[in-house]
């Protein structure tokens, strides 16, 4: 700034860096790639306008968000951050299902240890106290997904409605 080395934005845009340069505090000269990628995705004019509209104490966070979004857009030009979020949400869904299956296995093993004479274990549903045949030899999980009720982020084209007396129903938004 001033008489010293220009900030990364002024260096890239080949202009003189003034004391009032809005980019200087957030895009130092020792990290030119940071501004280059943000400039490539958003443009210097748009970045300048965004920063000027924000209070000074929020600008550093905004720059961090812009850099993150620009990196995501370079990696995935179509979806950007949304692609990464969707991927992580689907992983969470899969892990929730694996956890539910593991918990069901543990429950089956515990029930069989309590009464080893049972060929199949009966588990009582806590909401409506109906008996549910859950496992036979710890391998039968075909009916388990009907009784699991956590949101699925991977199925955006269907909606799940729960009636306490019936298993989950899946209804499409488009019908």
How does this structure look, described?
This protein is mainly alpha-helical. Among the domains are: 8-75, no CATH class; 82-113. Helix content is 46%, strand content 11%. The chain has helices at 8-13, 32-42, 44-53, 56-75, 81-114, and strands at 120-124, 131-136, 158-161, 169-172. The protein has a two-stranded antiparallel sheet with strand order 1-2. A hairpin with a 6-residue loop joins strand 1 and strand 2 (131-136). Helix 2 (32-42) packs across helix 4. It starts with 7 loop residues before the first helix and ends with a strand. Residues 120-175 have low confidence and may be disordered.
Structural Rg? 28 Å
Spatial ordering of strands, largest sheet: 1-2
Order of helices and strands: HHHHHEEEE
Number of strands: 4
The geometry reads as rod-shaped
Rounded mean pLDDT score: 75
Structural class by secondary-structure content:
mainly alpha
Kindly estimate the percentage of residues that lie in beta strands according to DSSP. Answer: 5-15%
Per DSSP, the total helix count is 5
Tell me the distance between the termini: 61 Å
Report low-confidence residues grouped into runs of 5 or more.
120-175
Helix share of residues? 40-55%
Query: How many strands, what sense, and barrel or not for the largest sheet?
Result: 2 strands, antiparallel
